[in-house]
Amino acid sequence: MNWITATWSMITGVCLSFAAVHLLVWLYTRDARENLLFAISAGAAGALTMLELVAFRAASPAAYGEALRWMHVAAAVVIIALVWFLRSYLQTGRLWLAWAITGLRALVLVPNFVAYPNATFEEITAITPFYLLGENVSVPVGEPNPWRSIVHVASLLLLIYVADATARAWKEGDRRRALFIGGAIVGAVLLSLVTSQLMVRGLLPGPFIGLVYLLVVTAMGWELSLNLIQARELARGLRESQQRVELATRAADLGLWDWDIERDEIWASEGARAPVGLNASEKLTFDHYLQKIWPDDREATREAVSRALQTGSDIEVEYRVAGPDGRTRWIAAHGKVVRGLDGKPVRLRGVSMDVTARRRDEAELQRQREALARLQRASAVGQLSTVLAHELRQPLGAILRNAEAAELLLRKEPPDLAELRAIVTDILRDDRRAATVIDRMRALLQRRSLQFETVGLRDLIAQVVGLVQPEVKVRRAKLEFSVPDELPDIRGDRVHLQQVLLNLLLNSLEAVRGLPGERRRLTIDARQRDDGQIEVAVRDRGPGFPVEQISSVFDPFVTTKIGGTGLGLAISKTIVEWHGGRIWAENDPQGGATVRFRVDAAQDGGTV
Amino acid sequence: MSSSSRSPATGPGTGPGGDRTDDAPSTVFVVDDDVSFLTGLERMLRASGYAVMCFASAADFLARRPAGAAGCVVADLQMPGMDGMALQQALAQSGDPLPTVFLTGHGDIPTSVMAMRHGAEDFLTKTAPRAQLLDAIQRALARDARERHARSHRRGMQARFAALTPREREVLAHVLRGRLNKQIAADLGIDERSVKRHRTSLMAKLRVASVAALARFAAEAGIDTHDRPTGDG
Q: What is the domain-level CATH number for residue B171?
C-alpha cells in the first residue's frame, strides 16, 4: 500500500459516498432535482478518480491512452451534471452558457473515440515513470491533440458560467451558497486547467481531477452540514410552533386536519377527532370520515369538497355528526386546497370547530323569531277580523235565508222542485264562498315554521288581495294589483310572504284613512328586474313616511301610526331577509309612499 | 216583481184620504249589494207570503221604486256607494217615506244606535232567525200602514182647509180664538149675519158639526191660528 493508491481510493470513496447519499435523498423526495444531479456528478468524479489510478498503473502507452479516453467520458459527465446542478441549486446561471458547455463537452467525446488514442493526445509515444509519494506512476509522453482546444473552450465557458452564476447568487443575497459552491467550483475549474496543463507538459502524471473535485465535494459537504444544523433548528422551531398552534387551537376549541388526497389519509388533531368520537390512533380516510356525518348533510359535504378540489377555492361547510355521547353535534370546517407542482390538488387542510352551541342558539333564536312573526301575523289578521266576520255573514246569511225558503217551499203540495234545485245550488255556492274566506284566514294563522317551496307570486298576491279586499271596501278605498304573466316563480315561504304583503297593505290602508277618495288608492306591482331579481312594490297615495323616519321604519317598535305596535314592518324585514332579499321604503315625489322588496327568482326559472 | 200574494202584514192599509195606493198590497223592498243574499232573502220572504221587490243598490231603489207604494225597506247597512244610513235619510226627506229594517254583517253598536235614532224600525244581523226578521218586517209594515193612514188623513184635512175662502179663514181664526159672532163682526167690520153665514159655510166645508170638532180638526191638520197676523194685533 502506498500513498497514491490510498489517497486516490479514499477520494473515490468520498465521491461515491456523497453520490450515494444524494441519490437516496433524491429517491425519497423525487422533486429534489439538484440532489440527483449532484449524485451523478459525484459518482462520475469517483469513476474519474478510479480511472486516473488505472492510468497511473498503465504499463504501455496504449493502456494509458485507453484509460485517458474513458476519463474524458467521466469528466464530461462530471462537468455537465455540475453545470445543471449549479443552475438548480443556486437558481441562477445563464441557460445558453449551460447548453454551450453541455454541447462542447459532448462534442469532445466524438474525436475522443474517433481519433487515436483520445482527445488529449494525438499520439502517446512513451510512458515514463514518475516518482510520486513513494510510488512510481506512469506519465504519458506524446503529441497533444488539437481537439484539446474544445476542452479548453468548454472549461473557459464553465469558468465564466460559474463565475456569473455565483456573482448573481451573491447579489441576490444567497451569499453563503454562492461563496461555498460557486467559489469551490470556480477554484476547481481553475485548478483543473492548471493540472491538465502540467500533465500535458509531463510535469504531472495525470489531471488529478479527483483531487480537484474533492474541493467541490468538501464545499458541498460543508453546505450539507450547515443544512443539517439548520434543519435541526427548523425542527425545533417547528416543534415549538406546533406546540403554540396546539395551545391556540385547544384554547379556541379548534381541530386541525390535513387530508393527503393521493394516499387518502387524514391526519386530524385531538380537537378534530374528539367531537366525532374518534380516538387518536384510529386511521382515517375521507370516506371513513364522511360516514361519521349525518346522512342529511353527507351529500352536501361531499359536494362542497369536490367543488373545492375542482375550483381550488376554499371550502366552508357545516354538518352534523353523532357525537361520542350519541348526541348530535354541529361541526363547522374551513379548509384550503394545497396544489402540487403539476397544479393538481394534493392536500386539503384546515380547521374544524364544534359549533353546536351556536347552532342551538341560532335555532332557538329562529324559533323565537318565527313565534313572534306568528303572533304579529295573528294580530294583522285580527285587524281584519271585524270585516272578515261580516264577509263570512254574507254567505252564511244567504245560506240561512235559502234554507228557510226551502223549508217553507217543502210544506207546499206539490213543492216547487225547480226552485228548490236552484236553492240547493245557491247554498252550495255560498258554502264554498264561506269556506274560501275561512281558508284564507286559516292559511295565515296556521302555526308552522319556515318552509321553502316554489311560489307563484300571482297566486300569492291574489290571495292576500282577496283577504284584504273586504276591509278595503269598508274603508271605501281601492286596491289593484298587476303581475306580468311571464313573471318567474320565487323560492319562498308562502305564509310568511303573504304576511309581508298583508302588513304592507294594512299600513297603506291606514295611511290613506280619512283622505279624499282619489287618494284612497293602493297598488301592488310585481316585476322582474334586468338583473333577474323579482321586485314587489306596494304603493299608496297617503302622506308618505316622515322624512326623518324613512330609514328607521323597519326598526322594531318604530311606528308612525297611532296604536301601531311597530312590529309589522320590522317583521316584514326579517321575513324578506330570510328569503335573502331586502326591503326599503320610499316617498314618491307625487305624494304617497312605496315599500319595495326584492328577492331572487327561483333557480329553475320556471314560470307560473 | 209583481206579486199576487196575500199580504198578511197589510193592516188597515186604506185610509180616508186620497192616497193612490189605498188598496195596493204592501211590498217589502229589499236593498242589498250581495246578490246571493238578496236572492235568498227574496225567496224566503216570498215563501212566507210577502210581495217582494229587490234592488242591488240604494240608488237603484230610489230611482225605480213605485211612487207611493206601501210597504217597508229591508236594507244592508254596508253597501258601496250610498249605504243604508244615507238611504234612510234620503227616504225620510222624500215625501214618501218608508220604515226601514237594517241588516248588517256584524252588530256595530254606534251605527245601530244612530240608525234607531233616525227612525229605523229595527237593526238585525244577516243571520238573525227568521222569526225575528219577519217580526221586524211585520212591525215595519204596520207602522207604514199607520203612518200612511195618518198622512192621508192629514192630507184630507189640509185639502178641506184649502177650499176655504180668505174671509172664511179669517172667521175661522177668530172662532178658534173663542170670539163671539158679534165681536168677530166688529173686528172684521162686517155685519153679524155675514159672520154667521161664513161660519156655517166653513163648518160644512170642513165637515165638522161643532166648535169642539172644529178645534180638534185644526189641531190635527196643524193649522196655527194664534200667530196669524190679524187686524187687531
A: 1.10.10.10
